[in-house]
Amino acid sequence: FQHPPTVRQIEAFLIYLARTRPGKLGSKPNTHTLNKLLDQIRRAVRATSDHCYSKNEVQSLRKFINNLPAKEGISTKSRTKTVAFFPVVEELIYFMWACDEYDWKHPRCMQQTSFILIMMGSYGLRPGEILESCIHRGSNQGLTYGDVEFSLTWHKGALRLLLLINLRLRKGRRGKESQA
Fold first, then answer.
1. What is the mean pLDDT of residues 126-141?
2. Domain contains 107
3. Is the distance from CB of 21 to CB of 28 less than 8 angstroms?
């Protein structure tokens, strides 16, 4: 861009896309797709014209996109995200222990990685619920030893190991103590 597009021009472009572009989940694109496209436009403008939109301009554009379902009938659906089932986890762990030639920085790392894979497969968790997300980069948040509790319990007359996990980082609940 020689000159960065104005907020009005970006809004007009987003309306054009909402009216003409087919969506993957419906007949029109969804708000998530348009928000990703807005981020791409901002990066392209920053890279080519060295212009950054102000926080107010970005908030205005996000609000504009969130109002498009009512105005243009775009979708608010989101794609269902799959989790790794336990047979996949077993295969990953087998490869890690039997076939992988990677030299781990510390012997404990392979055990911790195996443990986290078992937790993800057993509980149907996605990586972002236990690991630090790239969106929250630098926050050093993830599952800690204090979030995992082992205990013995009786089950049908035999002692069994029970694993309790405090999932503080679930999507939409991050940083909200009452919903952890």
1. 67
2. yes
3. yes
Domain-located, residue 1: no
Pick from 121, 114, 84: nearest CA to 96: 114
Q: Residue 150 forms beta bridges with which residues? A: 163
C-alpha R_g of the chain: 23
Task: Show the tokens assigned to 150.
Answer: 């082992």
User: How do residues 97-129 score in pLDDT, each as one tens digit?
Assistant: 999 888 888 889 899 889 888 888 887 877 777
pLDDT, tens digit (0-9, with 9 covering 90-100), for 55-89: 999 999 999 999 998 888 888 877 777 777 888 88
CA–CA distance, 9 with 3 (Å, rounded to integer): 12
Q: Are 89 and 120 in contact (CB under 8 A)?
A: yes
Terminal CA-CA length for the chain: 45
77 within a domain of the structure (yes/no): no
Nearest Cα to Cα of residue 165 among 149, 151, 152: 149
Q: Contact 162/152 with Cβ under 8 angstroms?
A: yes
Provide the domain count of the chain. 3
Tokens of 16: 């054009």
Same domain, 146 and 121: no
> Model's pTM, two decimal places?
0.52
| C-beta pairs of 170-173 under 8 Å, 24+ apart in sequence | 170/129, 171/128, 171/129
The whole-number pLDDT of residue 180 equals 41
Domain that holds residue 47: 7-72
